[in-house]
Design goal:
The complex is a heterodimer.
Chain A lengths: L2 E4 L4 E6 L2 E6 L1 H7 L2 E5 L6 E2 L4 E7 L3 E5 L4 E6 L2 H4 L3 H4 L8 E5 L11 H8 L1
Antiparallel strand pairs in A: 1-2, 2-3, 3-9, 4-6, 5-8, 6-7, 8-9
Chain B lengths: L2 E2 L3 H6 L3 E5 L2 E6 L4 H10 L1 E5 L4 E6 L3 H8 L12 E7 L5 E11 L2 E6 L4 H12 L5 E4 L3 E6 L3 H8 L11 E3 L5 E3 L8 E6 L1 H13 L3 E3 L2 H10 L37 H9 L4 E8 L10 E3 L8 E11 L4 E9 L8 E6 L2 E8 L13
Helix pairs in contact in B: 2-7
The chains are: A alpha+beta, B alpha+beta.
């Protein structure tokens, strides 16, 4: 069964087994505004929790997206190359960013659940 | 703590998101978002609150002399009812600020200065005023810009005389409102200086028109970059001379080799040397924006020499691609030439591009 976690940096992590799909939250895309470019990592890259792994660029600024946990990038959302606006349209759906393999599923315990994230962004 | 604009409550009610700029809490975007705000301005009419900008009036019999000392042009010859793009230089020829100076009367000039430079500009002019028979004073105003192809139609319903102005002409209304056909988007439009008491009514009346939307500083920046217009503090500063900034056109030819204005000697000396760098437009070949501060290189390889710096950049919604401006060495500054910007350790190809990126649609009369 898949379950979704959130980070204080406004990423969501949808976990299924030892894999997870990662994106930015709807709240984050609202704050960023219209995205015009998403710089995605290469599949196969190892990332450490807290490491900047993706850059999302709006008209006015570039922002880092951090690895929520340690792991390896398995796949990236290629559709974002032509349509970065997908993140604005469906941040927590078709606008996902990467799929990654988890090194240590116990790290998930330190992330926020939906209620805690909702409380964070008020 | 950041100051609030006189119309702050209106921006809050309109759902603005704020950011600090020039000491003010400024509306950065409204619910429309930067992209749509930008495109709306090019297609319809956008309303900007630019009250962070400072209005300084110079009055008195020697006001043309003071202006000609502070700014490199013949203020005595400036026609009444016109505005002029100019700047103030320091003794080294560096730019203190860029300005629009309007002549309101034989002995009256209005300086519109950048918000971030307001205090130092006023201090500079007040210090100069000691040498002339003039009075220099700051005029508290709400300053609105209405920009875009529908601006003239919209404003004429409120202020019928506005239609008589052409680009860079100015007028004062009986109630003291200052009106200028100018802006910072490349579009036709107006800048309107209002007494704080009257401003809310005017803003509300403008917003009642279905063509008008509030536009924030985010879109103001992408609009001005597409239009190839420089931003003080980003494209130039006190260490940048107007030649390097690509702004020498604003000085009459005969004053480029000397004059009574501050910085004249330094500028003549700079002009006599061969120019090292040139201000250019840059079109990144890919989709990644290249922003101010990025370094420019002659080649893709790590050992390629650095040949310049990006001063402003972002995404151009009307162009549909990233747009940037910067300073590059003279020998590389040819339109069509390919150079490389370093963005997060990668070398991104950019083509030197003629400015502006979009045609300027100023109204110069029928």
């Amino acid at each position: 069964m898949a379950s979704t976690f959130y980070t204080e940096d406004h990423e969501w992590v949808r976990v299924d087994g030892n894999e997870a799909v990662v994106g930015i939250t709807n709240h984050a895309q609202e704050q960023l505004g219209d995205l015009v470019f998403v710089e995605l990592p290469e599949a196969g890259r190892k990332v450490a929790r807290g490491e900047a792994m993706i850059v999302v660029e709006s008209v006015k600024a570039a922002s880092d997206v951090y690895a929520p946990v340690d792991g390896e990038i398995l796949a990236v959302n290629d559709a974002l190359e032509g349509s970065p606006g997908l993140v604005n349209e469906a941040a927590e759906g078709d606008g996902w960013l990467v799929r990654m393999k988890l090194d240590d599923a116990t790290q998930l315990e330190t992330l926020l659940d939906e209620a805690a994230y909702a409380a964070l962004v008020g | 703590m950041a100051k609030q604009l006189p119309l702050n409550a209106m921006h809050v009610a309109a759902g603005a998101r704020f950011g600090a700029f020039a000491g003010y809490d400024m509306p950065i975007t409204y619910p429309l978002g930067v992209m749509k705000e930008h495109l709306h301005t090019r297609a319809e009419a956008g309303l900007f609150d630019i009250s962070h900008m400072s209005h300084i009036e110079i009055t008195g019999p020697e006001s043309p002399d003071l202006v000609s000392r502070a700014c490199p042009y013949h203020a005595a010859q400036q026609q009444q009812g016109t505005g002029r793009y100019t700047y103030m230089l320091n003794q080294q020829g560096g730019m203190i600020d860029d300005l629009i100076v309007s002549r309101l009367g034989p002995e009256r000039f209005l300086v519109v200065a950048n918000g971030a430079c307001a205090d130092k500009d006023l201090a500079h002019l007040v210090a100069l005023a000691g040498h002339f028979n003039v009075k220099v004073q700051h005029i508290p105003r709400v300053f609105l810009a209405l920009q875009g192809p529908k601006s003239a139609m919209v404003l004429s319903r409120l202020i019928s005389a506005s239609g008589g102005l052409t680009f860079m002409e100015v007028m004062e209304l009986d109630d003291g409102t200052f009106l200028s056909r100018s802006g910072y988007t490349g579009e036709d439009g107006f800048e309107i200086g209002l007494s704080p008491e009257k401003a809310e009514d005017i803003a509300k009346a403008l917003l009642q028109d279905p063509h008008v939307e509030w536009i924030g500083l985010g879109a103001r920046d992408s609009l001005r970059i597409e239009a190839g217009l420089p931003l003080y503090g980003q494209d130039m500063d006190e260490k940048t001379d107007p030649i390097l900034a690509g702004l020498l056109w604003a000085i009459p030819k005969e004053l480029r080799v000397g004059g009574v204005y501050i910085g004249a000697a330094a500028l003549a000396e700079i002009a006599a040397r061969s120019v090292s760098h040139k201000h250019v437009g840059l079109k990144p070949d890919g989709k990644a924006p290249v922003r101010g501060g990025a370094l420019l290189f002659a080649g893709e390889k790590p050992d390629a020499p650095q040949i310049g710096t990006v001063t402003s950049g972002g995404f151009g919604p009307s162009c549909g691609h990233p747009v940037a401006m910067g300073q590059v060495i003279q020998s590389a500054a040819l339109a069509g030439n390919q150079i490389y910007a370093d963005v997060r350790g990668r070398r991104l190809a950019c083509t030197i591009h003629k400015l502006p990126f979009v045609p300027r649609n100023y109204y110069r009369g029928d």
